[in-house]
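User: Here's a chain of 324 residues. Predict its fold as tokens.
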Amino acid sequence: MRIAVTGSIATDHLMSFPGRFADQLVADQLHTVSLSFLVDTLDVRRGGVGPNICFGMGVLGLSPILVGAAGEDFADYRAWLDRHGVDTASVHISEVKHTARFVCTTDADHNQIASFYTGAMSEARQIELQPVAERAGGLDLVLISADDPEAMVRHTEECRSRGIPFAADPSQQLARMDGEDIRLLIGGAEYLFTNEYEAALIETKTGWTAEQILSKVGTRVTTLGAQGVRIDREGEEPVVVGCPEEDQKADPTGVGDAFRAGFLSGLSWNLSLERAAQVGCMLATLVIETVGTQEYELRRGHFMERFAKAYGHEAAGEIAPHLS
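Assistant: Prediction complete.
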């Protein structure tokens, strides 16, 4: 399958302050705060929903097409993604803005002060999908994940008008979208990805019941945290897949992106929905055991051993031919 992934492209700048923010705040001077914190560490990580998903598909042996907007400072990030199998030729490069950036300082009590600079991400709304499809020789699926909200709506409308199958993955952008926009995003989607809270939020904002949503999307994929994932299709019994046992919980950031990467890879391999969800859950487990969204390694033997332990040797035998 030729799969394009639209989504935010960003870098995370994470710092740690050894003291407590609260100790630096003067109650009767909060109206004129002026503070600077001397931090001990700076960790710069690659991020953004689009690259996170594409990276996971790349390490599984696919060549997903990343569609999004970045700044001229994207060169090193591009090289990293290219090296891990991601097609970055359709990334729009802004001439005036930097790549989106998340800057966060965490104190000793795990309180955080953060800022998010959207930067070049706002130019994603300028991207047309038709040239991407022409360059790729056609697209079998476009995953429309969290990005500039106008870009998400535009990509969805273009897919719908051109007859390109798409999957809706609105995630954190649901908070700033109204019911009308959400209905536009998910109506006619081949797949709808959410977690449990997002699923409930969609129903609340759109006014649609769970049954009505199922009538408007092909497959509803709901992640359940530590309990795994549930897949619903109209007129069929739900498919529920549990998570493999974790070696440790290092960092949950990017776990949902990794699941989507594994699931889409399974679809590309023509596996059943159950098998695709199992691949997604296994990849998500590797991410939660690693600090950073793209810092994990996929070692085939290790992956297959853990997959077989979690889901059985028959299931492992079905995915083994697809892993390089």
